[in-house]
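#lab-general

N.A. 3:47 PM
ok so I finally got the sequence cleaned up, no stray characters, all 428 residues accounted for. can someone with queue access submit it? mine expired

B.Y. 3:52 PM
send it over

N.A. 3:53 PM
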Amino acid sequence: MPSDKPAKSQSRALAASSPPRTTASPAALDSIVVVGANEHNLRNISITLPRDSLTVFTGVSGSGKSSLAFDTLFKEGQRRFLESLSPYARQFLGQMEKPRVEHVEGLSPTVSIDQKTVNRNPRSTVGTITELYDHYRLLFARLGTPYCPNCQVPIASLAPEQIADRLLAEFATPHSARASGQQPQGMGPEDGPATIVYAPMVRERKGEYRKELDDWREQGYVRARIDGTVRRLDEEIVLARYKKHSLELVMDRFRLNPANRSRLTEALEKAVALAKGLVALDVGDEQRSFSGNMTCGKCGQVTLPELEPRLFSFNDPQGACATCNGLGMLHQFSAEKLTDPDEPLAGGAFRFFTQNGNVMFTEIDTDYVLALAKALKIPARTPWGELPAEQRRLLIYGNTDTAMRIRNVFRNPFLLLETAEQEGLWPG
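B.Y. 4:20 PM
back already:
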């Protein structure tokens, strides 16, 4: 009969190599205890993690970081949470397989955010994916206290009378007195800048607004500033349904001086009542806006709109940074590294042409640049470094706010050049 001594010795060796099973202890209530994890490339791992703290797993690729964090801890916590639900709810969620681990103690319901390296969208963040960003925007909009960035004091409200006082003190002064710093001796009825008071009714919203325009016309309003242009309400106004529009009713037009203070105050009161505290003005060549609820009472230079969630969203034009458009970064270039100061335009002053002799992704080539230089009256035989700074800036940066569109260059490569020839405008 064969002896069983080798088998007994082997079993004793396996028992000695395996970790002892632990039982719940008072210390385990403050820790997460993992015993015998064997998921994927883990080999019988036992570990104790502190609760109420941030624990980071580090190590080389393939060492089992994700297997322990996601496939063991998160998977077991999610499985336990789903098992606590009713059978009716579990039938829609499916059955989760238990991870390969002996047991886990002190584990709470878990939430995990997967690591994704394929998403290159800069507007997609952890906050937007988990929708935590939406909750923060709502919190700031409802409970936030706005501060003046100049004075560092809370923004206070201004009554229409206070707005009128500020406007009269700033603008209703003869130009000669303002230039010399003297006190004004009085103003005639025709003195003061031309002023228009608006009530902002719609701000950057999509829609046709046909009913609103008809209602305002029936109420006796004659003009409105629509997308920056003052138009009469009795003319036909057609707005694109899926484009954002701004509509501002004209309350009154007059010369800003103390003699018209009553008209100014009345127009401000009507605008604040109609636009829920907002008012906008054209005073001469300057544009001003005030809010009956959000104006700095110390300097009077900072006026904020009513707090709403979209003001705290970098994906909304109202809340995005005007410099980076909400992306958090700027893509800029150095003109010195892209040009050769010793070469003229006709001899290769620009270094950004491809091997095919064109600007990448466009049909702009050397002949196009020479024709452009002729249209803008820039000498093509003068070395780039000897050209006046204004001409160099004109070629690279342009002299218009219209940005170059690649689709325009593809559809009509000489469209921008024709514009430069006819109107003298070049987008750079």
